[in-house]
Amino acid sequence: MTLPAIAKPLLDEIARRADSGKPLRLWLRDDDAIEPTAPLDRLLTLTAAHDVPVLLATIPAFTGQALADRLAGESRVSVAVHGWAHKSYAGAHEKNQELGDHRPAQEVLRELGEGFGKLSALHAGRFAPMLVPPWNRIAPSVVAGLPGIGFRALSVFGPEKPAPLQMLNTHVDIIDWRGTRGGREVEAVIADLVRVSQAQEGPIGLLTHHLVHDQAAWDVMALVFEATAGTADCGWFGVDDLLTEI
């Protein structure tokens, strides 16, 4: 298969990493899963076609058996806790935040513990003990309490920072949230992947949101997968594989 010239910077970066003996490692997190939908089917079909594992950050308050039934037999799909209800408690002039310091940490942790229990029961065998905060924001007081309710990992957006549990962040978002709210330009996504790869040696997380994808977003995913999946010098990893590194 011949890739378009637009993919060359990423292919060159993969080759550079291979020459240095540090192959590029990627992982995929998709946010806001609740129930079976046509976009979810499209996501699972696309990732399966390229053998790319995907972590579904799932909203506990609004999900149930229907999603568990849909995922049965999907061997490359994991499920993590995406807050509780994806509800913002921030003030009118603040950025959206469900897991901030607007409520007592004990109350927030109680909800998260309920979400942990619900999803681990619904998705036994594919549940990852990871918290994905809605809007990628969480108060330090809440982070401190996560190990005590069973969480082993935390995933937000941006460079990893020290925390009392493993950080496995996403670093490149394919959605243009401040503009079209659809897929970003392919050039921009590839440039971000190259930039992050040159700045760190750890796994790079790609962030998607299947429920809001337009054709541009699906096209970006397909091109990135075609350039990276199934190659000797670059690999896509499941959360279970990456969490066993600690």
Automatic annotation (TrEMBL):
InterPro entries: CE4_u4-like, Glyco_hydro/deAcase_b/a-brl. SUPFAM superfamilies: Glycoside hydrolase/deacetylase (SSF88713). It comes from the Bacteria. CDD domains: CE4_u4. This is Polysaccharide deacetylase family protein. It comes from Shinella lacus.
